[in-house]
Amino acid sequence: MPNVIHTAARGRLLAATLAALTSLLSLGADELRAQAPPEFGGVDVGRTATITAADMQRRVGVLAHDSMGGRDTPSTGLTMAATYIAREFESMGLKPAIGTDYFQWYPLTAIEPGAVSRQSLTLSQAEEEHRLDPSRDFVALPVGPNAKASGSLSRASGSDAEGKVLVILATSQTLGDQLGRLREELAGGAMGALIALDAPERYVQGVRMFFGRSRLSVGEPDVLDMPVAIVPLGSLPGPLARAIEHGEALDGWSADLRSSAMVQVDSAMNVVAWLEGSDPDLRNEYVVFTAHMDHVGVGGPVNGDSIFNGADDDASGTAGIIELAQAFATGARPRRSLVFMTVSGEEKGLLGSEWYSEHPLFPLEKTVANINMDMIGRNWTDTIVAIGKEESSLGPAVERIAADNPGLGLAVIDDIWPEERFYFRSDHYNFARNGVPILFFFSGVHPDYHRPSDEADKLDYEKAARIVQLVYLLGLDVANADGTPAWNPEAYRRVVEGADD
Fold it and tell me: What is the pTM of this model?
């Protein structure tokens, strides 16, 4: 049955989570403290003095503990992590973003294809039937529990396709756009759709793999209830394939299409807290700091370990957000307001930040910058990548701050892995595409990336603390400046307006 978490159930879940978390923080205190690393010296960091390597180690130790179960989205472990973060924000005097609630809940829908035996497609002309093999000849899209259609094939969409099965010719270049318009195409009363795909076999196999696995998306179920089959041209009966390819009439052809998928509803949360700015004119503008608190949960054991703790990815950035909040909460308030957010669902496709970008708790048009941290605890000791540095005035600002604070010992460099498209793979992207200038602090992947071996004892906490101090100084600079960060016009055209390079 669908697993819908309503308000009362959430309350019971949080109560149980709080009890488990309290046990973790008390009984495991010695283990979590471990051996405090030496603090770095020679840095005149002033108000950043509360950001320490020992604090970073302690916080990562909590977030990446085995009891969190890898913080999958959604999971009890994720709720434990979120509860811990909210308690820390509350203890620092930060305001909750929604009344008295630090959690921004959002709905999730998981759709998993049904058994192959429950997918079928039969094409008929006159007395001749062609039964296609669902394991080889077509891909049934997982659109709902029991979708079925039977009717004549039609090229026409809208009301002209009423009671018929719509036929669409697609290529590898057009399939994505055509799937995006499919609901609109079917709106006139078509029973379902057959998408004839003219593409190489390798592309077809990629389509089959994509739709053959469970997919998690943001929002309540938007079930299509009309079956859709993607069929390579070579799998269609020859006369039908030629007619579709050459735009000829489909007279006499009909289809019977059935598909099945399992739909499950759940929910997850972002943790959001804020500090109001001191300037009466600027306090309604916001600097938003983000990191993702989720990881990938529990998987197949590797060397006997099946918990993917995600210490670097991204307990390191999450610990950094908590440290930033503490540093800002203990000093004089900057002029603009500050928002501290740990999001979930990053590993499932930036889901939590997608929900926030569509349901912002603070207006995006008043959000002057998003500073994101993901995987800041490994690799070089003296270098940090700031992805997006060339896109706005935040880039020159962080370079200036790093130069003015040589004791931090950090060189800030551009993205050195553009082919990996990291720009699109963390939560800053959902701010950038909505017009908010961003910087993404990232130390790169490593052999323990998305493996159980991403453990807390492998992080360089001294380095991570220096990165968080740099982020603090940048955030302070942005929050107190007379003006706001400005986009590079070409970057704005490309990222926000979606223009081609």
Answer: 0.81
